[in-house]
Amino acid sequence: MGNKRFVAYTAAMDSPEAFCAGCRICELSCAVQHTGVSSASAARIRVVSWEPSVDVPVVCRQCAEAPCAAACPVDAFVLNDAKVLAVDEDRCIGCGACAEACPFGAITLLPESDKAVKCDLCGGHPKCVEVCPASVLELLEKENLAVRTTGSAARRFHQQRIQAGRAAALANEGGE
Amino acid sequence: MTRCGHTGRLLRVCLTDRSFRTEEIPLDWYQRFLGGRGFSSWLLFNSAGPETEPLSTANPLIFAPGALHGTPVPAASRTTLAVKSLLSGGHGDAHAGGFMGGELRAAGYDALIIEGQAATPTWIMVDDGMVTFHDASDLWGMKVSQTAEAIRQRAGRPRMQTAVIGPAGENLVRFANVTDGKASFSRCGVGAVMGLKKLKGLGVRGTGGIAIADPARLFKAISTYNEVIKKDPYCPPATKFGTTRFMWHRVKFGIHGACNWTRGGFDWEGLAPEAFREKHTIKAASCPMCPLRCRRDFEIRDGKNKGTVAKVEWEAIARSMTCGLTETEEAIRMMDAYNELGMDVESGADTIAFAMECYERGILSRSETDGLDLRFGNIEAVLAVLEKITYRQGVGDVLADGVKRAAQKIGRGSERYAMHVKGVEMTAGDPRGMPVRAVSYATSTRGSDHLRSNPYVEEFCTPEEAERYFGSPEAASLKGMRGKGAMLKWSEDLVTIGDILGLCKFAFYRSATMEYLRQKGMHLAAEFYSAVSGREVTGDDLLAVAERVYNIEKAFNVRNGLSKKDDIIPERFFKEGIIGGIGHGNIVERYQFDCILDDYYQARGWDPATSLQTRAGLIRIGLPEVAQVLASEARSDRRGLADQPAERVKEASDDGGK
Fold it and tell me: pTM here?
């Protein structure tokens, strides 16, 4: 069946205001929403930063063939009521195999218990998306991501064809 | 965990014997001072007295993250670092909007006090409840970003935060700063205090957090705040232009403070907000949790300085003008040097501008400037003298002690060109033509400062609001005189709330209308504190705490010999008109200054004749201990308390001026 929605980092980056600003309000909001404690170490979303002035939020993409679940030796990854893959805290043994397996580094091991946690989409209304001041996070249907990409690719091809056509027409005019 | 909104503990580190201990913070502190600047000012008052030499190992470094820092409250990003000021000898503190304070709270501490002195260069790591001490001999001499990177590498904790000093702090430059990631604690010489302790840097990693009493209420308040900043016309330009936008305000009033505070007419177009946006902007970046996103790292994209990237804030641009610089690239190069050497651009540039004026007036000869052609606008000379200041070479050794001491050393009439209040160099805009702003610079407890108050409310306040809040409609007029004391007192207390809670002043304490200002700065601030801590407070409760904290700092200054004669601005502002620009010829009228100052003392409940606090007043605002300390030290007219004349010894007044 697979999960069809995920929190996407869809910064437009077409103006200086449309970048992730690195404020990390998503991290602390996530932690407060899930645990009631404002602790970046308990956040399911993480902002990775480097110089000069680059910040990128990283969060679970809700893989259909989830490497985290496949790596788990005790089958702690289960679909929750909202049909989102989540960690069963009672089964998790805190081995970290899932964190190692995740290609995005989007699994968090809680500091005290070592138990794994991951983004559960907050039951369909992710807090990080709600609080992001730069609106660079979005709850996206995977179907729409494809549509978007297809759309922009189609537009690009279209423009290229038009330009190529114009160039050919010009060349023809010049030849006559 | 039952306690909400705080950790309940402070960490005390002694460098001398490499020891540390955790102390419980008395619960009543959370009610009386809340946190942040409330804690740091109270701790400083209790740990440094008149006998504490500022430039000595007895001067403590006190870090106190704001009471809401480390939570997702928007723009809750500020940490206070307090010391006994190396410039004024009185209360000193500096504030930064970085991640280190939040990390410290995640490590379990609402304050960190560093005492003593290490035998050799040291860096320390606070890792949750553990403190380790490490050799930093090979880091000594490194610039700021290099130091932070080295500490990060050695600790092997990618998500740790750092606070480090550069070479300026090591060499005890009196305006050296401490850098927290991209932010810096800049004023009052905090970096030199750290340098004297031989503490090159501090690494902090915390994996805990702050329990939130009512998450749903907190998230609701965040939404409300985000709605307000969409509507408040002050806010959107902040996101688009960062702090560079303040240029328009300077131009509107002709208060550039250019060329060592002489000129209002200045060739500013090269430093226009649009120029920074078009030529140098990477993106709108932010301090922790901030939706305004006015932080900017500007990059030079071509020419021989291509590749230079520096965090540049408005004060760097303003102080570029103070040194006569006119181009964006010059401002970026200058700020890169300040950032990397670890110095406060406000004090540093004012000191250099002073030297430039002395040079142009022939007070300093070229041989005395080590051959540097210190004309206004000469960027190469500015960069060269910055190096000399950092390493205390030649003329730099004189200037490294700040403008007041440099003028004393140079003499020859240079004192009249030394622009400072209480020994602390000027900041922000020219006060001429704006008397209440002039008084606000004079009354600031840490010396000249635009972040200690917000009397700019007179620029947008309506007469009705002025009457309601400050007792006179005149307070709403730039030229009016009545109600200004009450306005200044209120605005000082208002922005103090920001430093106590850790809320950025641009995000909460600047606005385009009184209504938005009160909504953000008082009501929403109170709502956030209530939601986080579970303790109901109102905006007025917060103002009361802020008044208490302001009075602690005032008392600290009184204890340390600062008196009414120090609540004064440089003579130049009274006597010389601004040259050029829309404010051409403006001065600060002395009678207006004196009148507003007296009005302010009355609004504060301090004695207008001496500026001293009263025992009754201190007890009324909940500071009986402070009253007791001051009473025990009342030795002269300028010390102690105003309402204990029996203990005062009359002496020849040297109050000057009045």
Answer: 0.95
